[in-house]
């Protein structure tokens, strides 16, 4: 398998991990990002790369984008969310809260 294919699949796997860590379905994450569940599914299968806007939307709902991109967990995720006023999806609710 080529390196770029491995990287794409690793990024895809980490997107799934972050969505699941937040307790969200594909439909809920898609709604929060202004995308379709099918688009989120494509990113999560490594069919396509998410845009910078999609990654910013993931961050806005509480995902660790540093982890998605690099595989290294952010040690200041909570601080970043507090400083930027980022929204976080409430587990199982599907609504954004601040």
Explain this structure to me?
The structure is a single chain. The protein has helices spanning 3-21, 26-33, 37-45, 52-60, 65-70, 77-84, and strands at 88-89, 96-97. The protein is mainly alpha-helical and 98 residues long. Strands 1-2 form a two-stranded antiparallel sheet. A hairpin with a 6-residue loop joins strand 1 (88-89) and strand 2. The longest helix is centred in the N-terminal third of the chain and has 19 residues, at 3-21. It is globular, with a radius of gyration of 13 Å.
Set out the fold topology.
Elements: H1 3-21, H2 26-33, H3 37-45, H4 52-60, H5 65-70, H6 77-84, E1 88-89, E2 96-97
Antiparallel strand pairs: 1-2
The count of DSSP E runs of length 2 or more, i.e. the number of strands, is 2
List the total number of helices.
6
Query: What general form does the structure show?
Result: globular
Q: What's the average pLDDT?
A: 84
- Which strands sit side by side, in order, in the main sheet? 1-2
* Radius of gyration from the alpha-carbon trace, in angstroms: 13 Å
State the distance separating the first and last CA atoms: 42 Å
- The unreliable regions are 89-98
Q: Structural class, from secondary structure content?
A: mainly alpha
List the helices and strands in order. Answer: HHHHHHEE
Largest sheet: 2 strands, antiparallel
């Amino acid at each position: 398998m080529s390196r770029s294919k491995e990287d794409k699949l690793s990024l895809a796997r980490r997107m799934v991990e972050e969505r699941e860590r937040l307790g969200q379905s594909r439909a809920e994450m898609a709604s929060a990002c202004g995308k379709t569940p099918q688009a989120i599914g494509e990113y999560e299968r490594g069919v396509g790369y998410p845009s910078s806007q999609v990654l910013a939307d993931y961050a806005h709902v509480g995902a660790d984008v540093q982890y998605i991109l690099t595989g290294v967990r952010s040690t200041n995720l909570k601080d970043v969310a507090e400083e930027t006023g980022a929204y976080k999806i409430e587990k199982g609710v599907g609504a954004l809260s601040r």
